[in-house]
Amino acid sequence: MAPFLLFHFSSLLLLSSPAALISQALTLPSDAAFPSTQAERLIRALNLFPKDLSADSGTAADHLTNARTIVERPFSLPGLTEGDSIEDLGLHAGYYGLPHSHAAKMFYFFFESRNSKDDPVVIWLTGGPGCSSELAVFYENGPFSIADNMTLVWNDFGWDKASNLIYVDQPTGTGFSYSSDRRDIRHNEKGVSDDLYDFLQVFFAAHPDYASNDFYITGESYAGHYIPAFASRVHEGNKDKEGLHINLKGFAIGNGLTDPAIQINKIYPACELAIKLCGTSGTISCLASYLVCNTIFNGILKIAGSINYYDIRKQCEGDLCYDFSNMEKFLNEKTVRQALGVGDIEFVSCSPTVYQALLTDWMKNLEVGIPALLEDGVKVLIYAGEYDLICNWLGNSRWVQSMEWSGQQNFISSPELPFMVDGEEAGLLKTYGPLSFLKVHDAGHMVPMDQPKAALEMLRRWTQGDIAQYSESNSLHDQI
């Protein structure tokens, strides 16, 4: 608890006379709490909060000879072999020494496509901020899931059935990524996106067979911040010919937080005003806006009681609504750690340190960079499970339709089409040019976990450029 931050919000604005005029609207609510007491409830850590990472010991990253080196190994784990050799499985884990850091090492998985090496390369970013992508690997769209006997079972709807799939533990301090120097903790999207761009440069240099493949960025939740910044960084690097050209074709955000001013409920005017003052580059004002707006969500939870705010159809079980403890158990097994080359580094499923380091980033608007990408032909897919509360489909739909670009009016007036999977309506799709919005039926915050078949079909159609094909055919059939 830090009482010194719980002051009248307008005192932050005294240097600006227009802001002072509205100070009465910005009084910090009496029940506002400093984020350190809220972090474990709000981040997508769910029920996993190990200690933060400390200095490295015995990882594959110890063998990095310089900051721009990748150390990668093929691996197999219990339940996966079925007679296949490690090489045939196409599963890789590795570390990369971040060049613009003091001692940071980034951990990643790379899963070759089970379909074709010519499939697009897709990178997945889990949100939080500060949550490991292993949550997605084992519970959402990875190649396998964890059985109760701590062996792995192949996922029939893993996204590696339609892509060559990368999962990265980022920012530094998340998952198996670590540093022995606290200065490597990132505080803004520039630091996060620069690290990811550096990683891609070295990854494709180490895997030249994939360098010319189509490339897509995907993720969910707080990745609604990461992804637009990362996509802009890649696009900028390509234009400036900084290094290897990355064949960026598009990005997809699931139930993300992208434009907080639109997505957060306007019942509380001070929240909207505070976010506007935060803008895209504020610091103290952005922290204050987090405090003010967090009050809204806490108020909703008080009324809702034990509801699961990631899926309102369900009750919250435990402090953070889900139980992913099998992942913790599995990743702490000695044989698993040896196979992955992570040594004795403690796995951090969701880091409160990383979460709090990005508090001034939360309420910034990341929508601002997307129109330029659309104008240059980069495809954008925003999808959302209809039963999520925390990053709900309505708020996402509103910011997408409010976004100003040359195709805005055509997108708004485009028809809403049924998204059909195996003859059944799995969602409602709105699309025009490079922009698509998909509301997914019977899903909460984590669409690939709740609707794995629909999520895989969404990825496959979108990356192949025909996300509306079956929907349009069905709509025409209904009209006849």
Automatic annotation (TrEMBL):
One Gene Ontology term, aspect cellular component: vacuole
EC number per UniProt: 3.4.16.-
Position of the signal peptide: 1-27
Uppermost EC category: hydrolase
Alphabetical list of PROSITE patterns matching this protein: CARBOXYPEPT_SER_HIS (PS00560), CARBOXYPEPT_SER_SER (PS00131)
Cross-referenced InterPro entries: AB_hydrolase_fold, Peptidase_S10, Ser_caboxypep_his_AS, Ser_caboxypep_ser_AS
GO terms of molecular function: serine-type carboxypeptidase activity
Transmembrane portions of the chain: none
Entry keyword set: Carboxypeptidase, Glycoprotein, Hydrolase, Protease, Signal
Gene3D superfamilies reported in the protein's UniProt record: alpha/beta hydrolase
Gene Ontology process terms (BP): proteolysis
Family that this chain belongs to: Belongs to the peptidase S10 family.
Descriptive protein name: Carboxypeptidase
